[in-house]
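Model it.
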Amino acid sequence: MSFQTFDAPTSPDQGPPRLKKLREELKKEGITGFIIPRADAHQGEYVAEADARLTWLTGFTGSAGFCVALRDKAAVFVDGRYTVQIKQQSDMDVFTPVDWPKTQLGHWLKEHCSDGDVIAYDPWLHTYGEIDAALKTLEGTGITLFASDNLVDRIWTDRPPAPQGKVEAYPLELSGEKSGDKRTRIAQILTDTGQKSAILTLPDSICWLLNIRGSDIERNPVVHAFAILHDDAQVDLFIDPVKTEQLGSDPAIMQHAPDTFADHLKSLTGPVRVDKKTAPIAVSQILEDADIEVSFASDPCILPKAIKNKTEIENTRAAHLRDAHAMVEFLAWLDAQAPGQFTEIGVVRALEGFRRNTNALRDISFDTISGAGPNGAIVHYRVTDDTNRTVENNSLLLVDSGGQYVDGTTDITRTIAIGTPTPDQKRAFTRVLQGMIAISLARWPKGLAGRDLDALARAPLWRDHRDYDHGTGHGVGVYLCVHEGPQRLSRISEVPLEPGMILSNEPGYYREGEYGIRIENLVVVQDAARPSGGDDREMLSFETLTWVPIDKRLIETDLLSPEERAWINTYHSEIKGKLTVEGDLAAWLDQATSAL
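Modeled.
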């Protein structure tokens, strides 16, 4: 049985009757509207079925967004990745897409509501930062935001139960640092800043700190829990005991039932560190109501978790080489298929099969994106039985996929020519490739952030008046979430890049209704070696982690500079040197990695 399924989880026709029931609750409560976010109480990117309220109401399955349901209109806020997808999954007669974050919640409410209107929200599903920003925008309008119980939960009569995945220990040979040492290190941060404790709500922060992994969220080996880290390095962990039956006990980690979390918050002494970007606003509301001092600051685990140690990086390298072998087998298989005789679902199943053959795959790291022709232009496309396209001759196939291995998380995108590509497709592909190479070759002074590098990937596309509506790269965990903060390659990322941070490098180009192109490698930040004659300025650079051939049939070589051509040839030569293959696969790899 494969990890990925192909059923359509929602249908646009389910939205209108559910929205009608929600509006009946609005009328019953005497309020104007209710906000339905994608998020759960832990504010992770991916949510369990029990927390997929936005999907249940609207049909939209994207990984970010929210809905504002008023008595007479309903808006679904989505970013540039989902402008095509929202039109296909939601009923456009009752749900109106809103360009977000260009249009913020407060500004939309200001335009569509009036003095005396009351908008309710569930305080466990929104951060302090989200609600505070909206409140500031609404000052003086007479529009009220009101903390409420969840109105969607009232009408979702067949809501699935909360996940009860078992927790497993993550051993030292994989983590590279004992949990006790991590807790001491992070507790010192609290001591240095005069804070008595820190509230942890992000599942991957808790898993990293305690050296555990879970299975509460598909594709992400994390556990649903809350935690309080104290300045003496002790931890209160709020978790269902069913999940931890197989774990040994640690006297410094006190386990409690999840429903006692709020009471424990009330018993704390301040200052208490709370991350306004990730913690539910309910946490700070409970603390403030109990007259406990709140100290807003980032989750103290986020940055240390992002900076991988030597053990984690070495293990990740091994995971990527294993994954590369599976990818090479897949690409060779793909080249042997007759166009018109296989489908997007067939591609997904084949690729997962090659990864399973490694005997090391724990899960895929996200649902594989297998987009043929126009489906490739849907940035986060998920193939279903209803949308499954045949992969036709003279088309492009975009495959974005990854694996969860106990020693590392992978994420790779390759765009493959099926038959003969058009000159326009080759030109667009080459511009995307040039952007990916620019990031791969980048050197920059210490202290710069992702926003300072993002334009390097876009510049080749800009020359042709092209661009893409997603970030250039996201952080990646080690057998944790495939999307991990705080670092990003993005116009809006202000977090300085540091050695040990793993990121994706994935520029793209999408022509709606025709094709999509994306090329993605993972890279890790490292200290840059000084060139001969170089100055003494400290610089950083990227080490490439992904070793899979790039489709040369899509490269317009005349567009490449000598340095870009040399990078491709060197990259392909290194792939051939790193991967051990035999027989027909060796012949395919020889051809795929031959010099331009």
